[in-house]
Amino acid sequence: MDAERLRVLRELADRGTVSAAAAALSMTPSAVSQQLKILAREAGVAILEPDGRRLRLTDAGHALVLRAEDVLAALDRASAEMASYRGSPRGRVRVALFPSGAALLLPGVLARISELGVEIEAQDVDEPASAVPQLLADFDVVLTHRDERAPSLISPRVRTEALMREPIDLLLGPGHPLADRSEVGLDELADESWISVRGGFPVDDVLQSVAAATGVQPRVVQRINDFRVIEELVAAGHGVALMPRYALAHPGLVGKRLAGVRAARIYELATRPAATDRPAVGAVLAAFREEAAHVNG
């Protein structure tokens, strides 16, 4: 089987449609369809079947995608091994990071790999952890985050590594009656207006987890993903909020511990299973580990 046709199949599995795979590969949809037909003949079994106006993978198609990962990973390992003879790690590594994680870790990571000949092409991506498999179609490394009570992503095509734990604190405006307390129980905030992020993101997941544990359902009046905006609203007395400890930047606000509950988000690094065989990717992952350890003291 031709490796490039296997790559086409993997793109279809990652992106879901022929047109999306074609755009990613700089091909026409008809060319992608033709390559997939040839691959099916080479495989000797149907790997795609109609699903309305779209195509979906058959069981054999899903199995072939996993084998395609092995083949393409082997080719990447061969390229990496050849690169090692030229002095490694070198090359470009594409990294997607959630914004607050990028602000916390990316400057130090870039400093740590600056002398290694590795170029990081970073992009901030504000997507929930469930989007990681799709993001790995375009990126070598994805830094994501989740509620510590939520399970890590499990997929045969994704490798995840827990990087660090960041506590999540309560934010109260400076004029709030409880502002002088070091910790506050959620039951003391039953009548408050809450400012949270959109559903599916860790801070809101933590809020819902804490609510389930305490039986106090928060009344969310605003959902905004920009932590700077949330800080300004809390500082102006428009509500209370949860905030990751290292993301707090407003000089007039101080995080308070939530009494009686553990609230935190977990940073995770995600790659394709064989990505760490590339020395450049391994160097970037090591830089993230070192920087996370430095941040955690």
Please tag this protein with its features.
297 residues, alpha/beta, D-Maltodextrin-Binding Protein, domain 2, 3 domains, 10-stranded mixed sheet, elongated
Q: In short, what is this structure?
A:
The chain has helices spanning 3-15, 18-25, 29-43, 59-85, 99-113, 132-135, 202-214, 227-235, 279-295; strands at 48-51, 54-57, 91-97, 118-124, 141-147, 159-171, 183-184, 193-196, 219-223, 240-244, 255-258, 264-271. With 297 residues, the protein is α/β, with parallel strands linked by helices. The mean pLDDT is 89.
In the CATH scheme, the class of the largest domain would be: Alpha Beta
CATH architecture of the largest domain: 3-Layer(aba) Sandwich
For this structure, the CATH topology of the largest domain is D-Maltodextrin-Binding Protein, domain 2
Element-by-element helix/strand order: HHHEEHEHEHEEEEHEHEEEH
Oligomeric nature of the chains = single chain
- Main structural class: alpha/beta
Strand content: 15-25%
Description:
The protein is an alpha/beta fold. It has three domains: 3-83, Winged helix-like DNA-binding domain superfamily/Winged helix DNA-binding domain (Arc Repressor Mutant, subunit A, Orthogonal Bundle); 88-164 and 266-295, 3-Layer(aba) Sandwich (D-Maltodextrin-Binding Protein, domain 2); 166-264, D-Maltodextrin-Binding Protein, domain 2. 41% of the residues lie in helices and 24% in strands. The protein is built from nine helices and twelve strands. Strands 3, 4, 5, 6, 7, 8, 9, 10, 11 and 12 form a ten-stranded mixed β-sheet that branches. Strands 1-2 form a two-stranded antiparallel sheet. It is elongated. The mean pLDDT is 89.
